[in-house]
Amino acid sequence: MILQTDTISLTLQGNRLLNDIALEVRPGEVLGLIGPNGAGKSTLLRVMAGLLRPDTGCVFLDGRDLFTMPPEERGRHLAYLPQEAPASIGMSVRDVVALGRLPHRRTASAQQDAAAVRQALDAVGMSAFADRSSASLSGGERARILLARALAVQAPVMLADEPVAALDPAQALTVMNLFGQYAAQGQAVAVVLHDLALAARFCTRIAVLSEGRLVGIGTPAEVLTDALFAEVYGVAVRRCGEVAVPWSLVASTRRP
Ligand SMILES: Nc1ncnc2c1ncn2[C@@H]1O[C@H](COP(=O)(O)OP(=O)(O)OP(=O)(O)O)[C@@H](O)[C@H]1O
């Protein structure tokens, strides 16, 4: 399935958070969403997930308006992994992951649900934690369980908001590899990342947001230029091999 935003704009409490953003997430690709803190990445992802309605513009899933689709159907097509989720007090890890099956409650058997939860836990290496209380997890473990919940949806489109922010390098690689495999199976993935080395390594294309606007989109090589680091992030980089390492702040009119 292809997910498209058609020049969407959104103002909340007098703040223009998104400004005429048109992009698409295609089957088989991992689209990275990058940009400084407060650029609008999470807001955009929530609009793409159908959780926030834009003031103008539409979001289309295979040409259908996302906001006229029955919520359960939308939930089967789109898996959304939030940046943060409230602790699920009293729920086991398995039960938290099973929440991902809610959109399927009228369409899937108990066996299909159980198999999807098992596979998702296995994919994130958390099967041994299935009976643990979700409240007892470390930050990184909780992040992997949230990812498992999103994987359990088995949706053709995955929208993930900073899924590796709490993870060590090995876990981060594992998760990004999972998204790569997901895309290789023909699913469409959009992922918000601050780690630009991971974005360069795993994203097919990268979209750059700054102050609510889409200021660049293309392959990692096209987008992750020294000019981008200076103009969008206000940092100068040094190149260590192929990796750009943020090195120093540059004078900018945009940053405080
Ligand atoms: N409900 C709201 N009302 C008003 N402003 C909001 C609301 N939600 C978010 N914002 C503001 O919108 C801007 C974009 O927020 P958003 O969370 O989308 O940024 P982000 O790019 O994901 O940032 P980060 O990298 O820090 O997670 C921020 O300045 C934020 O304070």
TrEMBL record:
Taxonomically, the superkingdom here is Bacteria
Recorded hits in PROSITE patterns, A to Z, give: ABC_TRANSPORTER_1, ABC_TRANSPORTER_2
Q: Which CDD domains match?
A: ABC_Iron-Siderophores_B12_Hemin
Question: Keyword set for this entry?
Answer: ATP-binding, Nucleotide-binding, Transport
Per its UniProt record, what InterPro entries does this chain match? AAA+_ATPase, ABC_transporter-like_ATP-bd, ABC_transporter-like_CS, P-loop_NTPase
**Family from the record:** Belongs to the ABC transporter superfamily.
GO molecular function terms noted in the UniProt entry: ATP binding; ATP hydrolysis activity
Keyword Nucleotide-binding among UniProt keywords = yes
* Protein name listed in UniProt: ABC transporter
- Give start and end of each ABC transporter domain: 3-236
